Amino acid sequence: MDHDVLMPPEDNGASGSVGPGSQSALRRDNVRRVVTALSAQGPSTQAQITRTTGLSAGTVASIVRDLEAAGRVRLTPTTSSGRRALDIHLVDTGRVAVGLDIGRRHVRCVVATPGHEVVAEELRALPLGHDAVTGIAAAQEAMHAALASAGRELGQVLGAGVGIPGPFDPNTGRIGSGAILPEWVGLDITPRMQAALQVPVIVQNDANLGALAHQAWGRTSLGDDFVFVKIGTGIGTGLVIDGRLHAGHTGLAGEIGHTIVVEQGLVCRCGNRGCLETVASTSSMLRALAATPHPPQNTDELVTAALDGDAVTRRVVEDAGLSVGKVLGQLASIINPETILLGGPLSDLGDLLLEPVVRGLHRHTVPDIARSTTVQVSLLRDRAEALGAAVSVLTSADPSEVYGPMTGALETTV
Ligand SMILES: [Zn+2]
Q1: In this predicted structure, what is the pLDDT of residue 276?
Q2: How far, in Å, from the CA of 260 to the mean position of ligand 1?
């Protein structure tokens, strides 16, 4: 194969370097880019890889041929824009990524292969108001149970992604104030998690991870600009702008839960008044329903009551949805997303949640943006955060750790 002619100048990140050595290094670098793209976005067509890596179609085609010959990928038929195409999957080499989602009352663990196959999943209940020691121990236990059920050893784990419900500043490594886990605020969580899990750990805000999961598992129709909204005890968003997660200067971008929607409203846990969370979080909905004759005791009961047609519960959900829609309308006016996905524990409400959110959005943004923004309930439901945590590991993994050194045919057929 004449790979030497498949290195167009626009692919050359090391412009100015010449000679066979630099060509070989360039080839290796391009192979890494293709494998990293597949790790991050899951099974993809050649056209999709070309778009995300910026490599030429010819270079991608030749690398995919070599990866297939070396047994690192397999191809399956699919359709793309109505045309026949091939999906490229990374094969299972035994290495896996762990995704952990720690909530106020639960920890969820998923184990995923680089080909984005979820091979095990565990859910553990946590006591309300649990401290970090309890939460970390539950995460450790869930991870070991999930690995055992997947038949994988700790040594096969590339790393663990950990989603936290609240602001996490990657610059300081600490959980910020206003987090849903007040007992965890100020904690330097990464080294503690790493010590307990005995694998490399990446911590992220959970809504950001929800957005990453949708990029990987729901990529077909979301577009390059979309918003993942998590409505739970807290309300946050993960913003994907131009195909990339936008975390912001200190990791706080998209904290819409603390947008003020009621002047002189209730005091919020962040210290302000009238934040969106004081009127539209699951806790505020439960608080509003506390005065009714048979108040729901938790979010599951609230969802059941609304689905069963309880008029008061539906009214409270509608009011909350309108407020969320109002803030999303303002956000849409600023970033003009193609899609807004509603996730979190209220996803099972379906249209009961979607309809008022859409109404609120239409009322608070310009008609052109309202018409062009698709609002959907997330199909990943409350698993999105844990799946995104696994993706964060796969995205940052060194391809040679997943597949061994990029040598042999992959290195020499330059
Ligand atoms: Zn607030």
Answers
A1: 97
A2: 8
Q: How far is the CA of 272 from the centre of ligand 1 (A)?
A: 5
Amino acid 278: pLDDT: 96
Task: Tell me the C-alpha distance between 277 and 256, whole Å.
Answer: 9
Per-residue CA distances from 354 to 63, 144, 205, 233 (Å): 43, 37, 24, 18
Distance 42 CA to ligand 1 centre (A): 36
The 3-state DSSP class for residue 79 equals strand
Distance 258 CA to ligand 1 centre (A): 4
Mean pLDDT, consecutive 10-residue segments, the chain of 414 residues? 34 44 81 89 89 92 92 87 86 93 92 94 90 92 98 96 86 74 80 95 94 81 89 93 89 91 92 95 96 93 97 97 98 96 94 98 96 94 93 88 62 43
Determine the residue type at 215. Answer: Q
Confidence (pLDDT) at 17: 45
d(CA 41, CA 52): 9
* Cα separation, 389 vs 410, whole angstroms: 30
Task: Give the pLDDT of residue 22.
Answer: 76
Q: Locate 78 and state its tokens.
A: 């699919």
Give, in order, the Cα–Cα distances in Å from 316 to each of 282, 300, 393: 10, 15, 38
State the DSSP code for 74.
E
Cα 346 from Cα 384, distance rounded (Å):
13
User: Could you tell me the distance, in angstroms and rounded to a whole number, from the CA of residue 14 to the centre of ligand 1?
Assistant: 47
The answer to whether residues 255 and 167 touch, using CB atoms and an 8 Å cutoff, is yes
Q: Which residues of 1-28 are buried (b: 16+ CB within 10 A; e: fewer)?
A: eebeebbeeebeeeeeeeeeeebebbbb
252 CA to centre of ligand 1 in angstroms: 13
CA distances from 103 to 73, 106, 297, 348, 362 (A): 35, 5, 17, 18, 31
Model pLDDT, residue 291: 92
Q: Are 175 and 165 in contact (CB under 8 A)?
A: no
Q: Which helix (H) or strand (E) holds 277?
A: helix 277-280
Residue 413 confidence (pLDDT) = 42
Q: Which helix or strand (DSSP H or E) is residue 369 part of?
A: helix 367-372
pLDDT of residue 412: 44
C-alpha 33 – ligand 1 centre gap (Å): 41
Cα of 263 vs centre of ligand 1, distance in Å, is: 12
pLDDT at 59: 94
Which pLDDT score is estimated for 6?
Answer: 31
